[in-house]
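User: quick one, sequence for these tokens?
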């Protein structure tokens, strides 16, 4: 049973590693997109700050607050619940377009469109953390079975077999003596 459990855990560990590598690839692509695009969006804000007063920009940012609704759902990967985020953003552009530069309008619009990408990176990071934790636990269990429990059980089996063989030889010799004694009495 320990050997079968060891094989099952090893198979689970391989499956987890495959899923983990798929997540790493998706994370790498999403992270690369965020890392390359986010500085461009920040440059837009910097341009807007240069072309307008900081008070106009801060007022516009305060008034352009939308409502962000983030739903956290769970997806199961090999019985491990990983998060799936659903983002819904309602815009509220109640600031004056006359007082703000077009760069700020573009920056706010682009950042609102870019927000789901940032949340996707967070989702993938958390999924990778959870899978990595489970891989570590499974690997420890596999190693414990492989290097501790199974060898101990095998040693116990050898010991019990040798004791049983010894007891069987003892019984056979005892039976032979008894038979010998009976044969000598009947003569």
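Assistant:
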């Amino acid at each position: 049973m320990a050997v079968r459990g060891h094989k099952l855990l090893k198979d689970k560990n391989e499956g987890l590693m495959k899923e983990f590598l798929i997540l790493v690839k998706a994370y790498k692509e999403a992270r690369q997109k965020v890392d390359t695009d986010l500085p461009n969006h920040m440059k837009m804000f910097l341009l807007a700050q240069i072309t307008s007063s900081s008070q106009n920009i801060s007022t516009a940012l305060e008034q352009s607050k939308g409502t962000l609704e983030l739903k956290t759902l769970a997806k199961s990967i090999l019985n491990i619940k990983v998060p799936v985020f659903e983002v819904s953003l309602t815009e509220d552009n109640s600031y004056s377009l006359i007082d703000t530069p077009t760069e700020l309008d573009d920056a706010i619009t682009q950042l609102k469109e870019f927000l789901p990408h940032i949340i996707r990176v967070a989702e993938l990071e958390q999924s990778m953390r959870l899978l990595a934790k489970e891989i570590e636990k499974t690997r420890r269990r596999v190693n414990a079975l492989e290097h501790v429990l199974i060898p101990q059980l095998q040693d116990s089996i050898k010991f019990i077999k040798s004791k049983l063989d010894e007891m069987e030889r003892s019984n056979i010799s005892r039976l032979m003596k008894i038979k010998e004694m009976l044969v000598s009495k009947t003569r």
